[in-house]
Design brief:
The chain has 3 domains: 179 residues, Immunoglobulin-like (Sandwich); 248 residues, no CATH class; 114 residues, TM1070-like (Hypothetical Protein Tm1070, Chain: A, Sandwich). The strands form 9 sheets. Strands 1, 2, 3, 5, 6, 7, 8, 9, 10, 11, 13 and 14 form a 12-stranded mixed sheet that branches. A 6-stranded antiparallel sheet has the order 24-25-27-22-29-30, with no helix packed on it. Strand 8 and strand 9 form a beta hairpin. It is 4% helix and 37% strand. By secondary structure, it is mostly beta strands.
């Protein structure tokens, strides 16, 4: 408020000029709200504040007509320029005389920083009549407001009124909004549950689908990996697919649910839809069209109505993995609000032709365009029933993310892919416009680990005249046809634990082709070593054999054994419990 005082004092000269013109001047009262106070999103740079008005009463005389109004906002004003000459903006001051007076006059404001200036001719006011000034279409950069841990900080407007039509005065400041975070933190779920909502008649996408178990699904990537098919439409919330559709995917394996993303409001008025032709949706501003005549000007620019847009950004998606998100309507949990995928932050609604071939309306999905493992999808808020937005419920939407993986082309990644949400458009000249703020924190989702086999050789030696021969077989070629393994190939990493271990203590073997055996001798790779070895092979169905003997003494004692297979730690961690009491599937199976 101190900054407002300085600005108002700077207009003292203007006030003194008009002081001698008091005949017929109106006396203006403090401003009041025309619309209710709203919560402005801290992520927004063009957030619309509440409309205000002040009333000036003409005490006597014929009523002069000149008026100048300065509005001082506590935040930078970002109302859109609609008239290029003179930089007139959509910020509008509408002057209306009471009965017996003149016509309505509309003035467009000029913005400089956090100040809006209006000047023009007010309508004639009869003796004892009133002049009502209504201020609309004021947008501010809410992102410039620092947020604390307490109550949301207010946004205020102070007014200075001058001119022959009124007694110069500094009017009391009005609170026109509060700044708070608009997006709630993202949540992830492992699966879907059918909700009570109906199926959308236009898209066939089930509404009321909810998340169930918190978290996400992880995947194991083999050389010829393709994710499993969803065969039952009901178990995945109506998002199953046909066998024919599955066949269109690489490997014929279909798609799998990676996670369900919950996107929600942090405040009940953060999401807006365009629900009537006369309403702008995002802040419900007055709609202007380029070429229209307003306030004596022909507008150069319009401000088309759009709804809230939410961008999901993905990163660290491994090569060969495709992410799929629904095109159909996704209904909010507990309200009539909904979201639907659009082609871009400034684009139109995605249609069935944008989806994957072979999908029906119930399962229509659209692939995310990825570059270097990163890409985004944009949804816009829609209204499925009624004519007003739901401002009493914290809307949240559960968006399923499916994956398909290309055969022989999917890369394992030790880093989970991540997803973040933001309003859109970002850093744009569009209205509205947003920034990536504190609410855009990324959350990690599915991982894609390699298919491996880990072998334990519990005792090997190259000491006291003994040596150990090791053999690793790649048995991914077999006679079992469609029920058998898929041929794979890869190297093995030999990890030595004991005395005389080599430096480094891990050695990578040559490539082991499917259907072949890799032989090696410890003296050739770790001379003087004695201890145990764990071999990590990046293919499935590896098996090992060790043979200990004394060379060249043929009469020495010799011993052979099968290497133990350690369960795949990518799917189940190596449990500390002995296999006798560990849960099913844990523990170790040795001697096979």
């Amino acid at each position: 408020m101190a900054s407002f005082t300085k600005k108002v004092l700077g207009l003292a000269g203007v006030a003194s000029v008009f002081a001698g013109m008091a005949f017929g001047q109106g006396i203006c009262a403090a401003p009041t709200l025309v619309t209710g106070l709203g919560l402005l999103r801290a992520e927004g740079t063009t957030e619309q504040v509440a409309s205000t008005q002040f009333v000036c009463t003409n005490a006597a005389g014929s009523g002069a007509v000149g008026i100048a109004v300065s509005v001082f906002s506590s935040l930078p004003v970002t109302s859109k320029v609609v008239v290029n000459t003179g930089s007139k903006t959509e910020a509008t001051l509408t002057l209306t005389a009471s009965a017996g007076g003149g016509a309505v006059v509309v003035l467009l404001g000029t913005v400089s920083g956090s100040t809006i200036s209006f000047s023009g001719t007010a309508p004639l006011v009869a003796v004892g009549g009133t002049l009502t000034a209504v201020l609309t279409n004021v947008r501010v950069n809410a992102n410039s407001q620092a947020l604390g841990t307490g109550a949301p900080p207010p946004v205020t407007e102070a007014f200075f009124v001058a001119g022959p039509a009124v007694v110069p005065a500094s009017l009391a400041a009005a609170t026109v909004g509060y700044v708070t975070t608009g997006l709630a933190p993202l949540k992830l779920y492992k699966n879907l549950t059918n909700g009570a909502g109906p199926v959308d008649s236009a898209t066939g996408f089930p509404r009321g689908v909810t998340g169930s178990t918190a978290g996400f699904n992880t995947f194991v990537v083999c050389n010829n990996y393709s994710v499993k098919r969803d065969t039952d439409a009901t178990t995945a919330g109506g998002l199953g697919q046909s066998t024919a559709t599955a066949a269109t995917y690489a490997g014929g394996g279909g798609r799998s649910l990676a996670t369900v993303i919950e996107v929600g409001e942090a405040s009940t008025s953060a999401f807006h839809s365009v629900f009537t032709a006369a309403n702008g949706g995002e802040g419900a501003q007055t709609l202007y069209t380029a070429g229209a005549a307003v306030g004596g000007f022909t507008l150069d620019n319009g401000n088309a109505a759009i709804s809230t847009r939410i961008r999901l950004s993905f990163s660290n998606v491994p090569a060969g993995v495709t992410l799929l998100l629904p095109i159909g309507t996704v209904l909010s949990q507990g309200s009539t609000m909904a979201i639907q995928q659009i082609t871009s932050e400034t684009g139109t609604t995605a249609s069935a032709t944008d989806g994957l071939a072979g999908e029906s309306g119930t399962t229509q999905l659209r692939a995310v365009t990825l570059t270097a493992g990163a890409g985004s999808v944009v949804f816009q808020v829609t209204q499925t029933a009624g004519t007003t937005d739901d401002t009493t419920t914290l809307d949240k939407f559960h968006i399923p993310v499916f994956i398909i993986a290309a055969a022989n082309a999917t890369t394992a990644s030790s880093t989970a892919f991540s997803v973040s949400a933001s309003f859109g458009p970002i850093a744009s000249t569009s209205f509205p416009s947003f920034v990536i703020g504190a609410s855009t924190a990324a959350v990690t989702a599915s991982t894609f680990s390699s298919c491996t086999t880990s072998l334990l050789f519990p005792f090997v030696t190259n000491q006291q005249g003994f040596d150990t021969g090791l053999a690793i077989s790649n048995t991914s070629t077999d006679p079992f046809g469609t029920s058998g393994a898929t041929a794979q190939a890869g190297t093995c990493s030999l990890n030595f634990y004991g005395t005389g271990a080599p430096t480094p203590a891990s050695i990578t073997t040559a490539n082991v082709v499917s259907g072949t055996v890799l032989p090696l001798v410890v003296s050739g790779v770790a001379a003087g070593f004695q201890g145990y070895v764990i071999a990590q092979c990046n293919f499935q169905y590896a098996h090992g054999f060790a043979f200990i003997t004394s060379f060249p003494n043929a009469n020495a004692v010799a011993q052979g054994y099968l290497a133990g297979v350690i369960p795949d730690v990518n799917q189940s961690p190596r449990s500390a419990n002995p296999s006798a009491i560990a849960a099913a599937g844990s523990g170790e199976t040795l001697g096979n």
